[in-house]
Fold:
Amino acid sequence: MKTTDPKKNITRRQALSMVAASGAAAGGALASPAIAQEKAVIEWKMVTSWPKGLPGPGLSAQRICDRINTMSDGRIRVRLHAAGELVPAFEVFDAVSGGVAQMGHTASFYWQGKMPASVFFTTVPFGLTPEEHCTWIEYGGGQELWDALYAPFGVRAFMAGNTAGTMAGWYKKPLTSLEDVKGLKIRIQGLGGEILRRMGATPVSLASSEIYAGFESGVVDAVEFLGPWSDAAMGFQQITKHYYGPGFNKPNGTGEALISSVAYEGLSEDLRLIVKEACRSENAQALAEANWMNAQALQTLKAEHGVQTDSYPQEVVQTMRSLAQEVLSEYAAKDELTQKILESYRAAMALVSPWSQLSSADFLSARGG
Structure:
């Protein structure tokens, strides 16, 4: 009896189907271990110094979380905790340094009691503008000095938002002379508080969530916060109509992202870049947003709330400017690194100021006629 070899009766189409099937099976066998080895999502907490959704810095904090989550395709999930939810507003640095959270969003001048030089990375009186500050950090050696300052605490920092130029503050009574400064209780942060203290005022430190109640109840007679957009959201226009500007004590408003050095170095190279670029992107967007929203808010404050913008008397400005240099020099004398940071900051200002004057100040003067 003649036997038939089954292989000879297989059509070309059947052969191709068998090859495809075997390939799929092999692929499935290879895919299973890969799925099993897939890394777990990296969970980070971000603590902040702001009420949730606060126009300006509160929005910046949330957008950074969203950017990292999206850009990493979900490999990192950063959850935001507003001031007071996990830690108080002024304990963000310690929370990141101590491992309570992997990330924070805040402002460096809150740490001036711990590190005097930290103020330079937010702003100093009569100092760099937002654009000039970015130039110093990115190209003038500022980032390297920032890294050196925070390294002993196991913390990295990046620029991560900007509230733009600020206002000098809200006053219950008009400020018409140096005498009006004496005895004034004002909520203020940074070196501006020390300058006003030397002028006879009493600087008071209040977290963002406490400012309105303190102002309304008389704990303070005046409030310095940010610009019109954030200030209007806080409701200060309901308490007084006297709004002073510009904010000589805070010509810049850099927000900082704090990151645990251990958490940051534990990331792959591409994830570290994503975190860094998420902060850099927010720095640019926040500055553009702040300038746009401040302009709109100021218009509304004047037209709908009867707010009037006032300027400090010239004798007050001159005294502040003189004291600013005095205070900065004293700060620099505290330690070698602070002195080095001040020298770098002043060198940057000396370099960029002539160009800023020519390209911006002189142009704006000419444009306005």
About this structure: The mean pLDDT is 90. The first strand starts at residue 42 and ends at 48. The first helix runs from residue 12 to 36. The radius of gyration is 28 Å.
